[in-house]
């Protein structure tokens, strides 16, 4: 998570993620930090 800096395994996410979503200008937030 780019907000709280917790680490997650991609395959443990719901839905699972196959590769890193990191790209320039992109940030990922876990369910606890996601405002939506």
TrEMBL record:
<dbReference type="GO" id="GO:0008270">
    <property type="term" value="F:zinc ion binding"/>
</dbReference>
<keyword id="KW-0863">Zinc-finger</keyword>
<dbReference type="InterPro" id="IPR019787">
    <property type="entry name" value="Znf_PHD-finger"/>
</dbReference>
<keyword id="KW-0479">Metal-binding</keyword>
<dbReference type="InterPro" id="IPR011011">
    <property type="entry name" value="Znf_FYVE_PHD"/>
</dbReference>
<dbReference type="InterPro" id="IPR013083">
    <property type="entry name" value="Znf_RING/FYVE/PHD"/>
</dbReference>
<protein>
    <recommendedName>
        <fullName>PHD-type domain-containing protein</fullName>
    </recommendedName>
</protein>
<dbReference type="Pfam" id="PF00628">
    <property type="entry name" value="PHD"/>
</dbReference>
<feature type="domain" description="PHD-type">
    <location>
        <begin position="1"/>
        <end position="33"/>
    </location>
</feature>
<keyword id="KW-0862">Zinc</keyword>
